[in-house]
């Protein structure tokens, strides 16, 4: 990492860093020379990038392809109400460079894929994973192992968070902890299960702290350790992690030597499943408008049902569906729905395995219905 000079303005700005013996002038120059890629500019990416920018990390890369939505504002502190509908990276770059004009922000408005990950990541010193889905987590991990780069990992759900540093050169990787992904839909996303707005701030700040420690070469990074945060009980638990000698990507005899199809690996390939298992909001609207008899099965939780629901829908949460399946008729045409379609896909599979043939999943869930059919319906 080349040594770079600090201007008078930068010395003034970073004064509270410069008087810390572990940082000092030499450390601040390291931060200025560092290149950090943050994958995801959402709940975790917001505090991560804000704190890295404030700390003076000289080159910050951001990968995202989404636009700001009102539902983001409860936790994604990079954005304000005026940013709604703007590309996230456009708003993020504007905010970060306004905070610190001495840094450079490079944006990649694209989905990170097996085709572009190595090219995007190769010139960065540290990769910070701020994603919220399993395919991208495995992709980031494998790319970091292949490139020999540290992966600062974080995940959040409701009140709980996890943080670790995966660096296959010095310890385990993400696959050592989770060799296989969970079955599709088993672990709800934040969109399906919710997240307390302040939680990504806690976890993202910890990720930013680990990133700065890696750049400065100080302290004990979370390599070989998984930090668990319980916001409800305000407690931290640490688990020791070991390198898996049979790891497919970082073990002594790896079988994964190049990036693979991670959507297929995690079982979430968009084209998977029979087309007849799904019905679009428009198709359902036409059926209901023409008076066709359709049994609407809402498999969300009661708190979600109270926010919004389709008229005449019957609420049976997915967790209770196996014990209440006798309330459904094999002869009815059933359309199951949830928030965005993940849980209802599982419900449809369960019911089809039990012999229900006239059951389909509302593609995109009630969120797609609200967006495309009934704009007056609250969205969450």
Structure description:
The protein has 380 residues and is an alpha/beta fold. It folds into two domains: 34-265, NAD(P)-binding Rossmann-like Domain (Rossmann fold), CATH 3.40.50.720; 275-372, Oxidized Rhodanese, domain 1 (3-Layer(aba) Sandwich), CATH 3.40.250. Helices cover 34% and strands 17% of the residues. The chain is built from 16 helices and 13 strands. The chain has helices at 8-13, 15-18, 24-33, 45-55, 88-99, 117-121, 134-147, 174-177, 190-193, 199-216, 262-265, 281-289, 302-307, 321-324, 342-353, 365-372, and strands spanning 35-39, 59-64, 104-109, 126-129, 151-157, 160-166, 225-230, 235-240, 278-279, 295-298, 314-315, 334-337, 359-362. The strands form two sheets. An eight-stranded mixed beta sheet has the order 3-2-1-4-5-6-7-8, sandwiched between helices. Strand 7 (225-230) and strand 8 form a beta hairpin. Helix 4 packs parallel to helix 5. It is globular, with a radius of gyration of 23 Å. Residues 270-275 have low confidence and may be disordered.
Key phrases:
alpha/beta; 16 helices; five-stranded parallel beta sheet; 380 residues; eight-stranded mixed beta sheet; Oxidized Rhodanese, domain 1; single chain; 2 domains; 17% strand; 34% helix; Rossmann fold
Write the layout of secondary structure elements.
Layout: H1 8-13, H2 15-18, H3 24-33, E1 35-39, H4 45-55, E2 59-64, H5 88-99, E3 104-109, H6 117-121, E4 126-129, H7 134-147, E5 151-157, E6 160-166, H8 174-177, H9 190-193, H10 199-216, E7 225-230, E8 235-240, H11 262-265, E9 278-279, H12 281-289, E10 295-298, H13 302-307, E11 314-315, H14 321-324, E12 334-337, H15 342-353, E13 359-362, H16 365-372
Parallel strand pairs: 1-2, 1-4, 2-3, 4-5, 9-13, 10-11, 10-12, 12-13
Antiparallel strand pairs: 5-6, 6-7, 7-8
Helix pairs in contact: 4-5, 4-10
């Amino acid at each position: 990492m080349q040594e770079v000079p600090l201007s008078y303005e930068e010395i003034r700005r970073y004064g509270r860093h410069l008087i810390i013996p572990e940082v000092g002038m030499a450390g601040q120059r390291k931060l200025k020379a560092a290149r950090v890629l943050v994958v995801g500019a959402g709940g975790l990416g917001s505090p991560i990038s804000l704190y890295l920018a404030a700390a003076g990390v000289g080159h910050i890369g951001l990968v995202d392809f989404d636009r700001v939505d009102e539902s983001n504002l409860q936790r994604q502190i990079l954005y304000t109400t005026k940013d709604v509908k703007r590309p996230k990276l456009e708003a993020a770059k504007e905010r970060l460079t306004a905070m610190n004009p001495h840094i450079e922000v490079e944006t990649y408005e694209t989905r990170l894929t097996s085709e572009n990950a190595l090219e995007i990541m190769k010139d960065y010193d540290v990769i910070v994973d701020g994603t919220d889905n399993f395919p991208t987590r495995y992709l980031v991990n494998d790319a970091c192992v292949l490139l020999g780069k540290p992966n600062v990992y974080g995940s959040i759900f409701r009140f709980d968070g996890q943080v670790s540093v995966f660096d296959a050169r010095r310890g385990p990787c993400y696959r050592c902890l989770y060799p296989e992904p969970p079955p599709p839909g088993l672990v709800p996303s934040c969109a399906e299960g919710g997240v307390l707005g302040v939680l990504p701030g806690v976890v993202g700040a910890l990720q930013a702290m680990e990133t700065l420690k890696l750049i400065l070469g100080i302290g004990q990074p979370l390599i070989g350790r998984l930090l668990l945060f319980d916001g409800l009980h305000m407690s931290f638990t640490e688990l020791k992690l070991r390198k898996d000698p049979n790891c497919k990507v970082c073990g002594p005899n790896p079988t994964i030597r190049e990036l693979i199809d991670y959507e297929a690996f995690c079982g979430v390939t968009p084209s998977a499943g029979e087309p007849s298992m799904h019905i679009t909001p428009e198709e359902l609207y036409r059926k209901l408008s023409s008076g066709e008899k359709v049994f609407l099965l809402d498999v969300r939780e009661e708190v979600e049902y109270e926010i919004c629901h389709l008229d005449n829908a019957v609420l049976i949460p997915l967790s209770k569906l196996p014990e209440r399946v006798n309330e459904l008729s094999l002869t009815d045409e059933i359309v199951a729905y949830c928030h965005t379609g993940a849980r209802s896909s599982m419900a449809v599979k369960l019911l089809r395995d039990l012999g229900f043939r006239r059951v389909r999943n509302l593609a995109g869930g009630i969120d797609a219905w609200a967006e495309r059919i009934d704009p007056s319906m609250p969205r969450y």
